[in-house]
Every structure is written in C-alpha cells, then in structure tokens.
What we know:
Elements: E1 3-4, E2 6-8, E3 11-13, E4 20-24, E5 31-36, H1 40-57, H2 65-82
Parallel strand pairs: 1-5
Antiparallel strand pairs: 2-3, 4-5
Amino acid sequence: MEQIKNFIGGQLVDSQSDRISLIFNPATGQEIRKVALSTVHETEHAIESAHLAFQEWSKIPPLKPDCRICLYHCISVRETLSGIRWCKEP
Length: 90
C-alpha cells in the first residue's frame, strides 16, 4: 500500500516516524493509503520551511481576473482529460 510522504521545502521526504494512520475511501471503506504521523522535529521543520517559502511567494502579485479565469479553464480541461474533477466553480 502506498505511503504518503511529507512535502517539506519543496521536496517529498519520508518520515522517520514508525507511527502511521490509514486513509480510507469514505464511499467503500477500503484502505487506500497510509500516512506517517510525523515527529515533532519534522513538524517544526515543515513549519519553518513554510515560513521561509512565504517570505518569497508573498511578494508575487496576485493574478488578474482574466488570468484566473484562464487558469481555471486550463485546470478544468486537464482534470476532464484525466477523469478527475477537483473543483466545481471558478
């Protein structure tokens, strides 16, 4: 069964924790993945990395309305082609 990794500092990393939690499909009750319950150190590192990342990406100006609409349609096309629908409204 696939184990979900932590996403810290722009990279997927394995947790050092032995504790895991199972993820279930709510429609079927089937176990579909597992996720490690991160250590205190991993959690603190993730928070620190997020604060550092925020300092950079918060300087990026927001998208203009017409760009947001284009982005929404691009995402919609990609999700339709892949058979996945993540959002329902722009």
